[in-house]
Amino acid sequence: MSEIGILHPGDMGVAIAASAIHNGHHAYWASEGRSEQTRQRAEEHYLIDVGSLQELCKRCSIVLSVIPPSAAEEVAEQVSAQGFKGTYADFNAISPQRAQRIGRRLEAHGITFVDGGIVGPPPWQPKTTWLCLSGSASGVIASCFASGPVQTEILSDRAGDASALKMCYGAYTKGLTALIAGVLGTAENLGVRDSLMRRWADDGSGLDKSAARRVTRSADRAWRWVGEMEEIAATFEQAGMPPGFHMAAGDIYERLSQFKDQPAPDTDALLDALEAPAARG
Predict the structure, then answer these.
(1) How far apart are the C-alpha atoms of 137 and 215, rounded to whole Å?
(2) What average pLDDT does range 105-127 have in this prediction?
(3) Residues 6 or more apart whose Cβ sits within 8 Å of residue 254
(4) How far is CA 262 from CA 222, 265, 267, in A?
(5) 8 A C-beta contact, residue 160 and residue 100
(6) Structure confidence at residue 278 (pLDDT)
(7) Going by C-beta distance under 8 Å and a sequence separation of 6 or more, which residues neighbour residue 207?
(8) DSSP code of 51?
């Protein structure tokens, strides 16, 4: 049994923590500076509150980072500053070069680093979510989830490989959703959306019925995907591929970020959001 700290229990993080608890481990979190919504989520799923990051780093031998990609490096530095000397696993949607940079910094301070990439939704059901791992201590993290519902795969001993896979997978799945959103917005603004629906109905793709539904179903998470698209673009550029498509996808998701934590919008609200660029914070 391991003492595992979760940074921070959002929708995905709390599901990962619940899977570790299902495997017989203790899962901890630090409530200092977190929202009431996060507190309620953590309590509902039996995470143990230790108050501060300092206490969490003292108590736990494993720390899992499941946060927006823009904060990945800052949070890793905060953990390092607490004198933590255990195993730190970064499960964030970041580029492989960013994962490697975090790993080098942590290992220079005596912390064991594991690179992770989550493929799929929050793992409340079996056989829906894969945790891909890379780095020499990947087996330590995989053992925390041996009994499901998270399925694990160790890719290699090289940090960055798990993040690379996550970036490639998300490049297609979330990139396609952004492309569909862009097509719908363009067709609406040019006055041909009804005609486009007829062509989609005729070609057998089913997009006349599924396109808007696919985008609206994801709208409440669009704010989280802006940073992920930027990380994917950086990954493409590092690999010698053009980054522009996913930078544009990030702009699409920025326009939809107003639906954060909201019910799925109807098609008219979706199209209104796509029409006007949102200012980046």
Answers:
(1) 38
(2) 96
(3) 222, 226, 277, 278, 280
(4) 11, 8, 14
(5) yes
(6) 56
(7) 180, 200
(8) S
Residue 226 corresponds to which amino acid?
Answer: V
Contacts of 105 (CB under 8 A, 6+ apart): 73, 76, 77, 80
Residue with tokens 């109905």: 201
Count of residues making up the chain: 281
Q: Which three-class secondary structure state does DSSP give residue 34? A: coil
Name the residue among 42, 44, 78 with its Cα closest to residue 63: 78
Contacts of 170 (CB under 8 A, 6+ apart): 93, 228, 232
Position 276 scores a pLDDT of: 72
Q: Is the pTM of this model over 0.90?
A: yes
Secondary structure (H, E, C), 188-228: HHCCCHHHHHHHHHHHCCCHHHHHHHHHHHHHHHHHHHHHH
Quote the Cα angle for 30-31-36, to 5°. 150
Question: Scanning the structure block, which residue is given the tokens 């020499």?
Answer: 136
Q: Is the pLDDT of residue 233 over 60?
A: yes
In Å, how far are 7, 61, 195, 217 from 184, measured between CA atoms? Answer: 36, 48, 11, 15
CB 116 within 8 A of CB 133: yes
Q: Which amino acid is at 175?
A: G
